[in-house]
Structures are given as C-alpha cells and as structure tokens.
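Subject: for your reference before the review

Hello V.,

The reviewers asked for a structural picture of the protein, and I figured it would be easier to keep everything in one thread rather than splitting it across files. Below is the amino acid sequence we used in the manuscript, unchanged from the supplementary table.
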Amino acid sequence: MHDYFISAVILLAASVVGLNSAALYIPATHVLYETLYKTAEFMTGADEASTTKELISSHGYPVEHHHIITEDGYVLGVFRIPYSHKLNNQGKTRPIVIIEHGLMGGSDVWFFTGPNHALPYLLVDSGFDVWVGNSRGNTYSRRHVSLSAENPHFWKFSWHEIGYYDIAATIDYSLEINGQGHKAIHYVGHSQGTTVFFALMSMRPEYNAKIKTAHLMAPVAWMSNMEYTLVHKLSPYLSDPQHAFTRFMENMEFLPYNKYVLSIFANLCGRDQVFRPVCVYLIKSYYNSTRWNNKVLVISQRDVPAIK
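And here is what came back from the structure prediction:
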C-alpha cells in the first residue's frame, strides 16, 4: 500500500504542475470523469463489474479465457472468440487476428459498443478467429510463475518488454491453438498497442514473417511532437533511466486500480472535494470529449451501483 499511496500522491502533484493557470468551471456531474475514475459514487461495486468473458458471452458468442506464459514468466489473460455463432463457421478456415489495447486499457474496452459496432464482434462475424490481448500488469495479467504482484520486481517492465515478450508469446500461442496451419496473423493495435508492435518487429525481426497485415490506430513511436502539457512537464524526469525520479518509480504500478487508490481519489476528487475541478479538467484534457462516445459510458458502468 505504501508504494500505491506514494504513486498516487506523485501523480496528482505532477498533474497540478501540468495545469494551465486559469480559473476553471467544470460541472460536478461530468459523466466522463465519473466513468473513468469510478470514485465515491461507484466504489461499492467496483469489483463486481462484468469481465470481458461475461461481456462476450452475454451476446451469445463462444468465448475462451486463455493464460499465456511469456518467456520471462508473466501469465497473460487473453480472450478468444474462436468463431461466430451467427455464421456457425467453427469447421471452416478462420484467419487469426490479435487485438491489443492502449495505455491504461484492457480487453474490456473493445466490447462496450456491442455486437453491431465493436471491432472484435465485427471481425469474428466476418470469419476471423479473434484474440483480444491484455498486457502484463493489467487486471487480467497480474500473475507470474514465481513473482507476486506485490513484489516490486514484478513491476520492473515497460512497453519494451510488453512488445518483446507479451506480443510475441500471444502470436505464437494463437498460431498453435488455432490449429489450422496458419503461419501468420493479422494485428490490430491502439496507441501503446502500436508502440509494442514496433518494438517487437524491430527487436525480433523474425516476427515480421508472422504478420499478414498490421492496422495501427493512434500510432505512437516518437513523442516529441505531442502537445499534451503534462507529457512535456514530466519528460525531462522520465526520459533519463538514471534520473532519481525514474529510478524511484521504476518498480511501481502505473495508476494502480484497487480500493486503496480509489479511496484516495474519492477523497481528493469526489463531489464537493477541493481538487474536483482539477481532476475533471485533467480527464477532459486527456480524453477529448468531442470524440468520445458518451452513449457507451452507461454500458461500461452498468453493473456498478451508486452509493446512496
């Protein structure tokens, strides 16, 4: 808990530094903020929300939950929709597609828009064997063959290891389990999901032969042209691996999600709390609300009851 508390305090302090100096007025009922941080009003049922497997099966699709062990011992929770119940194509050749989330994401985010719009459903209904990944450390991938997630050494990784080990393991595993003799897969990545792809293809060039097509959304390779203020404020401290701040944070979880952290943010950013306008401003700055589908926010929090 000590590491989690320090991480939360540092993150909040850094966020305040990154603010533009201006008087802010933000409605207290901003639904985007509530959904992303799930503070105060949502904390009671935070552990009861549907899993990716439940989201998929609720629409009648077959779903499998696989546990893939990487070369360096991390256990990845990966979900597979092997075929479409609409096509009944389980006996036919189904090309493999792997879908990888971005920073602070997970497999859940790909399914909130439902069967008629969500990419995994559209792909499986087009005849693909769909695999939706989870990088090491997120909700579905917090296990290791010898390390506990409470051990600081568990968290000594970056997007480099996610690409080099996690994506490679997922590719190899899907090709084996599919069992149809495929030699290559299709890849879809978003944000960090593109960065880790670049890392794998650069550091292990033999994997290029295992890629049929790559579809990279919001690709990130160089960050020097980013306009987000917080990134520029933190980059001098985080870009140097020998910097004291980097070394201090290297064995900590990035934005840990548990009841301790939720309690901290609830007290700092909850309704009527002093930092509420700051917290909402940061969320609105990071997630451009003009490009956010507000209709799916209700779906993403539908199993999380409000505190009366």
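For the response letter, the relevant points are probably these. Residues 159-178 form the longest helix (20 residues). The longest strand covers residues 74-81.

Happy to draft the paragraph if you're swamped.

O.
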